[in-house]
Design brief:
alpha/beta, six-stranded mixed sheet, three-stranded parallel sheet, 10 helices
C-alpha cells in the first residue's frame, strides 16, 4: 500500500509540476534549508513502520524545494521547543501542522496558509457518555488529553472547559500520539485535534475511534521562520504556485483520501 501511494503521489505531483516551471518563481541557487519537525502528527509528518519520515508536509517541502532550487535538511525536535528554537534562529523553518496565531506571530514569521482544518473531538468508538463539548464539560469525571501550548490545549481550556489552564481534567502529554494512545487505553476520554489528523486516525482505527459533535472552529496551518527571514517570500510564492496548478489538491487526495494509516 505504501509503495502504491508513494508512486501515485510522485506521479500526481510530477504531472502537475510542469506548469510551475514556466512560472516566475525565485531561484535559491541550491540553498540549504534546515527544517525543524516533530514527526508526531500524522498524516502531516510522522514515521512509518520502518522509521522513515513521511507525510503531507514532507511531500510538500520536496516539491517546494524543487520549484525553488533549494535543498532541504530535517532535524527532529519536540513541539514545546520548536517555536522558541526557530525564533532564536537555530533552524531556518519549522513544520508540524502549526496553527497561524497572533501570539506566535509576535516571535516568528509565518508563511501563507497551506491548509485549513477544523478542530474536532476524537473519542473512542464506543463512547456514549457525551456527544458534544457541552455534555463533555458537564461530566466532571471525563478527562481530556492535550499537549501544553498547542491550539487544542487552549480550545479545550477556553472553549470546552472553564478557562482554568490548570484544570485537573486536562491531562498533559509530550506528544500528540501519546495523548491518542492514552485515549485508546481509557486513561482519558477526549482528544481535541484538527480534522486533518482526527480523520486520519479514525480511518486507520477499524472502528476503535470516532469523531463526535460539531467542529469547534477552523485553523490555518503555516510554516514558521525566524523573524525577518528572507525565505518567507519565496516559500509563499511556491505555495501559491502549488495551489494554482492543483498540486496541493493532489497532496490532499493522496494523504487524506487514499491514505489509511497502518496499511
Amino acid at each position: 500500500m505504501r509503495l502504491t501511494l508513494a508512486a501515485a503521489a510522485a506521479a500526481a505531483i510530477a504531472a502537475l509540476s510542469a506548469p510551475a516551471a514556466a512560472q516566475d518563481l525565485p531561484d535559491l541557487g541550491g540553498q540549504e534549508i534546515v527544517i525543524a519537525t516533530e514527526n508526531a502528527y500524522p498524516p502531516l509528518q510522522f514515521l512509518d513502520a520502518e522509521g522513515t519520515p513521511i507525510g503531507w508536509e514532507y511531500d510538500a517541502m520536496a516539491e517546494i524545494a524543487e520549484r525553488l532550487n533549494a535543498t532541504v535538511t530535517y532535524e527532529t525536535i519536540s513541539w514545546d521547543a520548536m517555536i522558541p528554537a526557530v525564533a532564536e534562529g537555530q533552524f531556518d523553518m519549522g513544520m508540524t501542522g502549526i496553527t497561524i496565531r497572533e501570539d506566535r506571530a509576535e516571535v516568528v514569521d509565518f508563511s501563507d496558509s497551506y491548509m485549513t482544518s477544523q478542530m474536532v473531538m476524537l473519542v473512542r468508538g464506543d463512547e456514549e457518555r457525551f456527544s458534544d463539548a457541552a455534555s463533555f464539560a458537564a461530566d466532571e469525571d471525563l478527562l481530556m488529553a492535550a499537549q501544553p501550548g498547542t491550539t487544542p490545549f487552549y480550545v479545550g481550556v477556553y472553549d470546552v472547559l472553564d478557562g482554568d489552564e490548570a484544570n485537573p481534567r486536562i491531562k498533559l502529554f509530550e506528544t500528540f500520539g501519546a495523548g491518542v494512545e492514552a485515549l485508546r487505553n481509557g486513561d482519558v476520554d477526549l482528544v481535541l485535534t484538527d480534522g486533518t489528523a482526527g480523520n486520519g486516525y479514525v480511518a486507520a482505527s477499524e472502528g476503535s475511534l470516532k469523531v463526535v459533535g460539531e467542529p469547534l472552529g477552523t485553523e490555518d496551518f503555516g510554516f514558521i521562520f525566524p523573524k525577518g527571514s528572507e525565505l518567507v517570500e519565496p516559500i509563499n510564492a511556491a505555495i501559491a504556485s502549488m495551489e494554482a496548478d492543483g498540486t496541493l489538491d493532489a497532496l490532499n487526495t493522496t494523504w487524506f483520501l487514499d491514505y489509511k494509516m497502518g496499511e
